[in-house]
Amino acid sequence: MTTFIRKDNFDTTKVPPIQLTIAGSRGNYRGWYSENFVFLGTAKTTIEIEIQNETTDGSLAAITDYSSSGVTARRSPITSFKPSRDGASAVLTIVSFAHELIDFGVFVELTCGDYPPTVIFCDPQASNDPIKNY
User: Fold this and answer.
1) For the chain, how far is it from start to end, CA to CA, in angstroms?
2) How far is CA 91 from CA 113, 120, 122, in A?
3) What single DSSP character describes residue 13?
4) pLDDT tens, position by position, 38-65
5) Which residues pair with 21 in a beta bridge?
C-alpha cells in the first residue's frame, strides 16, 4: 500500500507514475509498488498508477477498484478514481488536509484462460501477502 503524505509548498506537478508490479501465477499472485510513499502538495494532486504485468502464466491484469484509509463519513481525500478502459492504469485525484496520511491500495483482477478470475488487493506493505479471492 502506498501512503500519501501532505507537505505544504511542495511542487506536485512532477509526481511520476507509480508502478504496480504484479507477479506470480494462478493461485500465487503478488503485487508491490515502486513507491512506498508519495508527497502531496496543498492543491489537488493527480496520481497515475500503472500495472507492470510480470505474471508467469500469461494472466491479464486489470485495476478494477480501490480502497483507502483516511476516508471519513463527511469527506474523502480521493475526489476521483478512473481506471483506464483496459485496466492497465488508473488515475486518481487527491486533496488532503495538513498532517493527513492516506493509505491507498487497489483491487486487481487477474484472468487466466478459462479459469474464474482472481481478485487481489495490492497491499503488500501491510500484510506482505495480498488478499486472495477465487
Assistant:
1) 21
2) 28, 19, 16
3) G
4) 777 777 888 889 999 999 999 999 999 9
5) 32, 52
